[in-house]
Write a structure and sequence with these properties.
Blueprint (H helix, E strand, L loop, with lengths): L1 H35 L6 H7 L15 H22 L5 H11 L2 H10 L19 H17 L1 H13 L2 H11 L2 H12 L3 E11 L3 E10 L4 E8 L2 H18 L1 H7 L8
Antiparallel strand pairs: 1-2, 2-3
Length: 266
């Protein structure tokens, strides 16, 4: 009788438990192949990348945290290299800020959602994906798995295709994360300084296509204090405002010259 029960248990596990695992592996393999555009011979890496530590049965090593650490480094390296090449006139501080905005959890969460990584994620049913950075962390783990499976060049191509996409996308992320134009307008209103965002023109750049240029004029003499360029008129305004704020911080005497607000001592 014990033998029959044992045999029956093995049969049931092979029919049901095994088929579920096989089906899950098939779905994961198909998902990864569609995402990468090529098959993988190391499905275990991707299974681990999609395993959150809250998943029942996940061990200390069999979860995606180590891959997340690795993927974070790969993404930062790729983004940093690209920013260095694309923004030749920006200093270290500006490049660091832009990289931080691109690799921010809010941006990675958005990208992970668009890639439907939640459909493959193995996690506790009580985990609230909408109020956590789990998907962004999973994206980093996925990049780590791609790096180990396919090498740096392939991982770099994936990051460029899905996280960076284009200079236009990077500028949109930057504008979304930090609204320099609003900050500049508030400053001008506080100091009662007349100002204008003046659209100059659009030029065709061989690398980035149509590039719009704008400048900021202040005071009754319409002094130009900054110019910005971008792939849209809105982004050119943002970049002009960013440069204007940087200039006024470095040279506060310009602000004092045009300010109409009297000090309390007068």
């Amino acid at each position: 009788m014990h033998f029959l029960k044992s045999s029956l248990g093995q049969i049931l596990r092979s029919l049901f438990g095994g088929s579920r695992k096989g089906g899950a592996d098939h779905d994961l393999h198909r998902f990864v192949q569609q995402l990468l555009g090529c098959p993988t011979q190391n499905l275990d890496l991707y299974r681990r990348a999609f395993t959150h530590r809250s998943y029942p049965g996940a061990s200390r090593r069999m979860n995606n945290e180590r891959l997340e650490f690795l993927g974070d480094s790969v993404i930062s390296c790729v983004v940093g290299h690209l920013l260095y090449d694309m923004y030749e006139n920006d200093d270290e501080g500006a490049l660091t800020t832009l990289r931080a905005q691109i690799v921010s959890r809010s941006n990675l969460n958005t990208i992970a959602t668009k890639l439907h990584l939640d459909t493959m994620l193995r996690a506790s049913g009580s985990l609230n994906l909408k109020h956590s950075d789990t998907l962004g962390n999973t994206l980093e783990a996925l990049v780590g798995a791609i790096f180990l499976d396919k090498g740096f060049d392939f991982a770099q191509m994936f990051v460029r295709s899905h996280i960076i996409v284009s200079k236009k996308n990077m500028e949109r992320v930057s504008a979304k994360e930090e609204d320099y134009k609003t900050e500049f307008i508030i400053l001008m209103q506080q100091q009662k300084i007349d100002f204008e965002f003046n659209y100059i023109d659009a030029v065709n750049d061989p690398s980035f296509g149509l590039v719009h240029r704008s400048e900021i004029l202040i005071g009754s003499d319409r002094r130009a204090i900054a110019m910005g360029a971008g792939t849209t008129k809105k982004i050119s305004h943002q970049n002009a405002a960013k440069d204007a704020l940087r200039l006024l911080k470095k040279h506060p005497e310009i602000l004092k010259k045009y300010a109409k607000v009297k000090s309390r001592g007068n």
